Amino acid sequence: MLLVLNFLGAVVYVWAASHGWVRPEEREFVSGEPFIWFLFVLPVCVVFFVLNLTWGAFILARKQWRIGIFWLVLIPIWLVALAIDFAHH
């Protein structure tokens, strides 16, 4: 459940981050795009940081190492989302 939720969160992150992507014809101009990006992405990052930190603490406290494998799958999911986002900056 949380793995699927994180996948959907990564999709929402890319969608939210797309509001701050620079258009190719405007690359040479300085704009407020980083601020727009930050305002859209911050809520998504905060929610999923707290969610995943809580999930990780639960795994450690209950010593449920097999569930920890699913938690580790989050790393490539979020790295792909970040790569897609940063490719457009």
Give a quick precis of the structure.
The protein has 89 residues and is mostly helical. It has helices at 2-17, 33-62, 65-86.
Summarize this structure as a short list of keywords or feature phrases:
single chain; mainly alpha; 89 residues; 3 helices; elongated; 0% strand
Q: Would you give an account of this structure?
A:
Helices cover 76% and strands 0% of the residues. It is mainly alpha-helical. It has one domain. Helix 1 packs antiparallel against helix 2, helix 1 packs parallel to helix 3 (65-86) and helix 2 packs antiparallel against helix 3.
Q: Report low-confidence residues grouped into runs of 5 or more.
A: none
Query: How many angstroms separate the termini?
Result: 32 Å
Number of separate domains? 1
| Radius of gyration over C-alpha positions, nearest whole angstrom | 16 Å
Helix-and-strand structural type:
mainly alpha
Number of helices: 3
Beta-strand content: under 5%
Largest sheet: none
Total strand count, please?
0
Mean pLDDT: 89
**SSE pattern, N- to C-terminal:** HHH
Choose one word for the global shape. elongated
Helix percentage:
over 70%
Break the fold down into its secondary structure elements and pairings:
Blueprint: H1 2-17, H2 33-62, H3 65-86
Helix pairs in contact: 1-2, 1-3, 2-3
